[in-house]
Amino acid sequence: MHIKTLILISILFFSSLSAREKVFSVKELSNMFIQPSEKSPIIYPIEMGKEFLLKDEDGEWSNVLDEKTGLVGWVRKDQLSPNKPKGNFKGKDYDQSFKIFKERVLEMSASIKDAISVDTFLDVKHLGGAAAAVIADDEWFNGKRHANQAFQVYDLWKNQNQSPSFLSFRNESNKEQFIILSGPHRPRYLKSN
After folding, report:
1. Can you tell me whether residue 81 is helix, strand or coil?
2. Which of 46, 54, 113, 141 could tie 50 with a disulfide, CB 3.0–4.6 Å?
3. Confidence label for 47 from pLDDT (cuts 50, 70 and 90)
4. pTM of structure
């Protein structure tokens, strides 16, 4: 009898815990930071209604995971809610920015192929907000110029957004190889695990 009660309590506890794990941005303008401080570098801006998984809390801050990008960062608690805000949100038109960005990246790829007969970027996917993923030819990652070209692509994306941005570079199997995101002085290049 005690085991059944324990199992029932465990199920209720974990189901209520998992129900509280999702949180949503409720501010029109907010940011995800590397550390729980507004003086910390911004990972990227977040739009109202953005969904996160709550990992931890520290004072006025929540440590959250963005499942779309795999990034973990800190957001002020007062900018999050367990309830998704309702209605239409007026924010930056990232969809339009992405459309222009994708056209430019694919044009860049075609120019590189014409000039040196090397395949580079095959597709670009919008992950939401200021986050996108570039699908590159598998051989491109072995080239000498791939890091410089990746930073050029990142600059296109950041300039299009006019804000801190995130860019994932993935192989033809959609496996992330590295990311580039905004840094305090210059963009950061991080190898994927």
Report:
1. strand
2. 46
3. confident
4. 0.70
